[in-house]
Structures are given as structure tokens and as C-alpha cells.
Specification:
- With about 550 residues, the protein is mainly beta.
- The protein has five domains: about 80 residues, no CATH class; about 80 residues; about 80 residues; about 120 residues, no CATH class; about 150 residues, no CATH class.
- It has three helices and 44 strands.
- The strands form eleven sheets. Strands 4, 5, 8, 15, 18, 19 and 22 form a seven-stranded mixed sheet that branches. A six-stranded antiparallel beta barrel has the order 9-12-11-10-13-14. It has a six-stranded antiparallel sheet with strand order 34-39-36-37-38-35, with no helix packed on it.
- The longest helix has 12 residues.
């Protein structure tokens, strides 16, 4: 019987487990302890534990269970009574039951050893007995005997451990039980993990359902108000997490449920390479050009030209179990939402994917997605309003080689010249973060891209912009000089250097747009004869594959 592996040190009022790794219930432990003290030879010993219910137990008479034993206990909670030295003080003989949790500085710390247990710990005029230690945390549990000033340099008489205290606190402890309901549906090999006080508790339990005891009060103070969160985030499954209040002890059920995520089946090793999907936190103002104007968002996901389905899988990857890279200041495996006040999306914290569409969590903006997905998403702005794309279409140029220079330019008409529909307003000065034109920006101007100022027949200046509204383009940077009013201005449908096999942008469709598509590359082994062809953006968008004929005549290196 696993519980028989326990050992009682009556002299130090300490319960340990010298051997064995099987689990046992709190009720079985209580029963075993009662069996030990009803022998004729132990009738004079103090009772270590009382029972309030079949699942609630209390250590009494100053008894302590070694911290390492709790990982084997299931099915109930354990509290303490009599550890608070401040209560049992003065002339009260029970003051010897008081236990101090003593924490040491890292500098000069000497690890305690097993032979130090039961020896006298000395701190000036104060002394006590060492009951237990954790050298990793530099913590000792000491039952004070005499004195009241537990501070400063500490040694063990005839022992090894030593150090300088940073704190020594006393008070009651509480170890609460949390367990997952068997009725919950768990995908195979689901490893549940627990967050406490913004950190992941080292996982010592097996995969599947849990039945654990967690310390939630130490030296009279609740750890994070007694709150823990139970997570189940296996990549390729729909995620789960729930907050549990363990402050009252007892048995606390969790209905953990996970299911297979059919939209997240790409091998994790493949998704790990999709580092061009970049998540950036910080308040931003963006216009989806759906008639609602600028809206604030808290986090932007740059899709790196990938589909929203791929972006969704990457968002699952960076929030899976074991992901320690931080997102908004917390480990990815613990990330839950952009702002504390927002509702959580339990199954995937950045948003869900269904029916070929991405449904963003509150505060999530997406950008630089594949043009074919111009309408395949729905967002929620920071103010809680749902933002649905207008009749957005994509313009994509494919069959490229990384490094190709690509442009898609609006024409005045089929067979016409590149359109320059706007004129520069006054007041566009060096250092400005906006560019203002005299006209209203047309609704079919791309939501983000490049705006170009025509200086003269030989010179053009281009600036990336992140949004526009009315007559104003909001730039990603600033103007490099001041400009004269009246200069021509146009916003290319697409103007970029390829970083992969395709580039794309999106715009709101209102009528067919004749365009000129240009792909050029004049240097390197991939240099090509310029590709210039007219095209038409229609109600379903436009996709054109470049014809890359090698340029064998050019002598450019």
C-alpha cells in the first residue's frame, strides 16, 4: 500500500516519504496516521491530523508534511493549525509549534543536507529546529524554539547549511485539491499544466486527467489570492483553460474538454519555420475601409503574405504547451487575451477559424495577408465592435523569385497611362507622419501600401502608409523633406520587392480597374527580361503570374 511508505518523525513532528512514488488519497493518509498513533507504544504521541470531512484534513499539534510528499497525495485538501508562531507567543507553551518559512539571499548560501534535519538553526539569539529545506528556492522550514528576532546570518549547529535571511514569515499553510472531471473529453495524450502566480508549476503528473494538491497559502498569505489556471493546449487540438479559486481548500473540479482542431493539422515542425508571421503588441489605429473609419486595436499580426489559415496555425503554435517565448509580457503557453477586461477565446487566444474564415479575438488586427483572403476574416476592435471587411478583393502577382521588384499601377483607361488622380495639399513638411492631399481619397485605394509624390518627369518619392481616412494618408515613417502644394500624387495598387514567390495587396472593389503589372530584375543569376502586361481587377480580384524570361544579353552582375 503506497501510504505505508510514509514515515513519522515524532520528535520533530515531521511526516516524510523515504521511498515510493505511487499516489495515495488524503483519506488513506489520514487513516494510516490514525492507525499509527493508536498503538500502545504511541498513545502518548500527539495526533498529527484531524478530519473535517472525507476530503478535508488538518495538520495539528505542529505537525508538518514534507513539501515533496504533496505531489503524491490525491482526493482531498490539507490545511494546518498551529504553525503561526505569532499566535502561540509569549508564555503560551504552544509557541514551540510555530513554523517559520525562511528565505535566504543567493550570495553566500550554503545548501542544507539531509543530516541537518532536526538540528538547531541559530540566528543571533533566536534558534529553532530545521524541519525541511528546498535548496533550489533557498527556503528552510524552521520551528522556532526561543527568541523573537528571526533575521540576519543563520547557521546550523553541528550542521552544514548556512546563509543570510531575506525574510522569515510565519503563519498557516493550505494545500488544496484540484481534479478534472472524468466526464470531460480529453484528446489522447493531453498534458494538462497549471499556472500559479504567473508561472507554470513544474509538471510532475502524467498525461490525461489530473487529481492534485496545490499549495495556495504559505505562512498565512494566499499565493495569488488562491487562484490557479488549468491549461490544456496540445498543438492540433482546440485549446482549453479555466481559472479555479482554491482559496477555500477542499476538492475543486475542472471540466477540462479538448477536441481535435481540423484547421490546425500542419506539422508543428513546418509551422515552426513560418517566422514571417509576426505578432506585435501596442495600441494602433487602423481603418478597414468598411465605412466605420479608424478603430483602435491592441495587437497586430503581420501574416507575411500567407493565408489567414496559415496565420491561424502559427497563432496556435506560438501559444501551445511548452512555448516560453513571451507574448505581451507572458509566456506564449499562458497568453490569454490582449487586455485584462476582454472576453477570452478559450479554444485559441488570438481567434478561431471556421468555414474558411478567421474570427479574431477582441483587439486583434491582421495585415499583409494573401490577397485571396481579402474577405476571409472578421475582427473585433478594441471598443468591442465587430468589423467585417467590405467587398475587398486581392491583387496578387505570382511566379516570382525573392528579390523581384513588382508594381501594379492603376491606368487612366485600358491602354492608357498610369493614373495620377490626386494633388498634394499645402503643409506637407519634413518630419510629418501624415501626407495630406487636396481631394478625398477614393474608396478603392488600398488600405495600406505606398503613396507616391511626382516631383517631375524624372523624380518620384514614395512613402509606405499604414492607413488612410478622408484626405490623409498615415505613414509608417515620416516625410524626408517639405513639399510644394499641387504636386501629383498616386497610390499604387502594389509596389514592393518580393520576399517569396508572390506579393499581394487588397482594396475595396467598386468597379473594374485597368492596371499595368510590372516585374523587373536586372542583376544576379535571376535577372530577367522586364515583364510588363496590362490586366484588370474585377469583382473577384486579380491574380497574374509573371513570365520570367532570363536576360542573357545584359552584362549586369
Amino acid at each position: 500500500m503506497p501510504v505505508s511508505d510514509l514515515s513519522i518523525d515524532y520528535a520533530n513532528r515531521l511526516i516524510t516519504r523515504p521511498s515510493g512514488t505511487d499516489t495515495f488519497s488524503a483519506r488513506a493518509m489520514y487513516s494510516w496516521l490514525q492507525d499509527q498513533i493508536d498503538e500502545l507504544t504511541t498513545l502518548t504521541r500527539h495526533n498529527p491530523m484531524t478530519a473535517q470531512t472525507p476530503t478535508d484534513f488538518t495538520l495539528v499539534n505542529g505537525y508538518m508534511i514534507a513539501e515533496s510528499v504533496f505531489q503524491y497525495i490525491t482526493g482531498g485538501s490539507v490545511s494546518t493549525y498551529g504553525w503561526d508562531a505569532a499566535v502561540f507567543d509569549g508564555t503560551n507553551s504552544k509557541q514551540t509549534f510555530g513554523i517559520y518559512v525562511s528565505t535566504f539571499q543567493s550570495g553566500g548560501y550554503v545548501s542544507a543536507i539531509a543530516g541537518d534535519i532536526g538540528k538547531t538553526v541559530v540566528a543571533g539569539a533566536t534558534n529553532g529546529k530545521l524541519l525541511y529545506y528546498d535548496n533550489t528556492l533557498r527556503k528552510w522550514w524552521v520551528r522556532r524554539n526561543t527568541g523573537t528576532s528571526w533575521s540576519g546570518a543563520v547557521t546550523i549547529t553541528g550542521g552544514t547549511g548556512a546563509g543570510t535571511l531575506t525574510s522569515a514569515v510565519t503563519g498557516e499553510a493550505l494545500y488544496s485539491n484540484v481534479y478534472s472531471l472524468p466526464s470531460g473529453s480529453l484528446e489522447a495524450s493531453t498534458q494538462q499544466y497549471i499556472e500559479q502566480n504567473s508561472a507554470v508549476i513544474t509538471t510532475y503528473w502524467p498525461v490525461g486527467h489530473i487529481d492534485l494538491i496545490i499549495k495556495v497559502r504559505e505562512a498565512g498569505t494566499l499565493i495569488d489570492s488562491g487562484i490557479i489556471r488549468v491549461f490544456a493546449r496540445e498543438y492540433t487540438d482546440n485549446y482549453f483553460h479555466v481559472q479555479v479559486d482554491l482559496s477555500q481548500g477542499g476538492r475543486n473540479p475542472v471540466g477540462t474538454t479538448t477536441t481535435d482542431d481540423g484547421n490546425n493539422q500542419t506539422a508543428s515542425g513546418t509551422v515552426a519555420t513560418w517566422t514571417d508571421v509576426v505578432v506585435t503588441f501596442g495600441s494602433i489605429s487602423r481603418n478597414l475601409n468598411n465605412g466605420n473609419g479608424l478603430k483602435n486595436y491592441d495587437v497586430s499580426i503581420d501574416c507575411g503574405g500567407r493565408t489567414v489559415a496559415q496565420m491561424y496555425e502559427r497563432s496556435k503554435y506560438v501559444t501551445r504547451r511548452g512555448e516560453t517565448t513571451t507574448l505581451n509580457g507572458v509566456q506564449g503557453q499562458l497568453y490569454r487575451k490582449a487586455q485584462a477586461a476582454y472576453a477570452e477565446v478559450i479554444t485559441s487566444p488570438f481567434g478561431t477559424f471556421a468555414g474558411g474564415k478567421f474570427f479574431g479575438a477582441r483587439g486583434v488586427w491582421i495585415t499583409n495577408y494573401n490577397g485571396a483572403d481579402a474577405k476571409n476574416f472578421q475582427l473585433i476592435a478594441a471598443d468591442g465592435t465587430t468589423q467585417i471587411p467590405p467587398n475587398v478583393v486581392g491583387a496578387t502577382v505570382g511566379a516570382l523569385v525573392s528579390g523581384d521588384r513588382v508594381g501594379v499601377y492603376r491606368l487612366t483607361e485600358s491602354g492608357g497611362s498610369i493614373a495620377v488622380p490626386f494633388t498634394l495639399a499645402s503643409g506637407n513638411n519634413n518630419g510629418n507622419s501624415t501626407l495630406v492631399i487636396s481631394e478625398s481619397i477614393t474608396a478603392d485605394t488600398p488600405a495600406a501600401g505606398t503613396v507616391t509624390i511626382v516631383i517631375d518627369a524624372n523624380t518620384q518619392h514614395s512613402y509606405p502608409y499604414v492607413s488612410w481616412t478622408g484626405s490623409t494618408f498615415t505613414l509608417s515613417g515620416t516625410l524626408s523633406q517639405s513639399y510644394t502644394a499641387g504636386l501629383g500624387v498616386f497610390a499604387p495598387i502594389l509596389q514592393a520587392q518580393a520576399s517569396g514567390v508572390s506579393v499581394s495587396n487588397t482594396l475595396t472593389y467598386s468597379a473594374d480597374i485597368p492596371v499595368l503589372i510590372i516585374v523587373r530584375r536586372s542583376t544576379g543569376e535571376d535577372k530577367m527580361i522586364p515583364f510588363d502586361v496590362e490586366g484588370l481587377i474585377i469583382s473577384t480580384g486579380m491574380t497574374v503570374n509573371a513570365i520570367r524570361n532570363p536576360d542573357s544579353i545584359s552584362t549586369n552582375a
